Amino acid sequence: TGEQKALLISLILANSRALKEQTGLTPVLLLDEVAAHLDASRRAALYEEICALGAQAWMTGTELELFEELGGRAQHLFVSEIEGKSQVEIQRA
């Protein structure tokens, strides 16, 4: 559910803040389907928190609309398969 996902994400972000505070280094976040099950306001809050951390974040998702709240703060990689080979297209929002 969205509430469970929000709780798990808040634990990950709290751990990231603690690591940054203790080491002075910002972690790289790898977040698979992070926006799934979150409403628009929770997605916006999540993206604001990630940006405030200054973290490099790799987030996967199946629909571009899930990342609209990032605006121009993100690059989008579109991966497709053509004749058995992966093709990657990079777009800036």
Tell me about this structure.
It is a single chain. The protein has a single domain (2-92), classed as 3-Layer(aba) Sandwich (Rossmann fold), CATH 3.40.50. It is 39% helix and 26% strand. The chain has 2 helices and 4 strands, in the order H-E-H-E-E-E. It has helices spanning 2-23, 40-53, and strands at residues 28-31, 56-59, 75-82, 85-92. It has a two-stranded parallel ribbon. It has a two-stranded antiparallel ribbon with strand order 3-4. Helix 1 packs parallel to helix 2. It is globular, with a radius of gyration of 14 Å. The model has no long low-confidence stretch (mean pLDDT 91).
Beta strand count: 4
Adjacency order of strands in the biggest sheet: 1-2
Question: What gyration radius follows from the Cα positions, in whole Å?
Answer: 14 Å
CATH third-level topology: Rossmann fold
* Helical residue percent band: 25-40%
CATH architecture: 3-Layer(aba) Sandwich
CATH superfamily: P-loop containing nucleotide triphosphate hydrolases
How far apart lie the N and C ends?
28 Å
Largest sheet: 2 strands, parallel
